[in-house]
Amino acid sequence: MNAPDVIVVGAGIVGAACAWRLTQRGLRVTLVDDGRPGATAAGMGHLVCMDDNPAELALTAWSLALWRDILPRLPDNCAWRDCGTLWLAQQPDELEEAERKRQRLADVQVASEPLCASALTAREPTLGAGLAGGLWVPGDGIVYAPNVARWFIEQAGERLTHITGEVIALEEPWLQLRDGRRLQAPAILLACASGANKLLAEQWLRIKKGQLAITDRYPARLSHQLVELGYAVSAHAPDGKSVAFNLQPRPTGQLLIGSSREYDNPDSRPDPVLLAAMLHRACDFLPWLADLNLIRCWSGFRSASPDGQPLLGPHPHRPGVWLALGHEGLGVTTAPGTAWLLADQITDNKPAIDAAPWLASRLNRQEVNA
């Protein structure tokens, strides 16, 4: 086996996309993963343009543009649907936020359409009564992320070697595996979520536990991914527990219902109280959900940086170590942008967009200024 140019640690959708893109650039890649399911297996698989800050908007909009070239090539088991997103306003004052959102999306050439209450009902007739309106973003979609990650790995071809093993130490240019193997490469890319804290001897990433529930299979009642406009308030709460309504109609006829957020709780068991609050919130928007059977509830762990932005690029003090970490709930959406950015930086090419907002060196500046 030829020595790799890059070792990628973590075969979730971010690591798999990075490995695939690096092989497209002509590099030999070893992808190493411990085989345990992570955030890619636990998450919702949404492709959604988020605009809570300019950096997030730039990365999600660019990534969605990259996804548009990838999606038509995916096999059926990746379950891509161009269902768009309906952002739902419960109160009239939320329509002002919908308009601000429309303007921000328009600034990056992402189309959206404000909806009055009747127009919203025309798009989704089974929504609960009394909603003020919303915003339709037709370019969003959904995928089944675990199969997309596998597709990235398969498409990488002979330039990719995929091995299973647990990385327990990083002494660049070496990685030590628990089974005694040692791997070496000029570049080591960490895409292993909060597991990178231990390898880097840093505490840059906090876990953010989330919960989801899925129904039995039913005849289709919904056509769009649904998200409440107050979602950002929950997503960026600095501490504590929170829930927000987010639902996807899956191609199987099932409804995937989210979501909750809780910092620093490593217990993988679902929290029944928080789960009940999450489902109650969902019934505020779709009262008929209360009559459906849930067949499974589960938890997963997002990893979040101190400022909520991912860490994409070189480690600030360790030459040869690269980071693709801290995507929080946007790993699926931003996987292509992450892969393109890292591949360009590792091969010493100028990225298509400015990488500065996501460099890990910003964390050191924040520590100095604290």
Automatic annotation (TrEMBL):
Gene Ontology annotations for the cellular component aspect, listed alphabetically: cytoplasm
Gene Ontology molecular function: oxidoreductase activity
Pfam family, one: DAO
Keyword set, alphabetical order: Oxidoreductase
Gene3D superfamilies associated with the record: D-Amino Acid Oxidase, subunit A, domain 2 (3.30.9.10), FAD/NAD(P)-binding domain (3.50.50.60)
Every FAD dependent oxidoreductase domain range: 5-344
Record's protein name: FAD-binding oxidoreductase
Organism of derivation: Jejubacter calystegiae
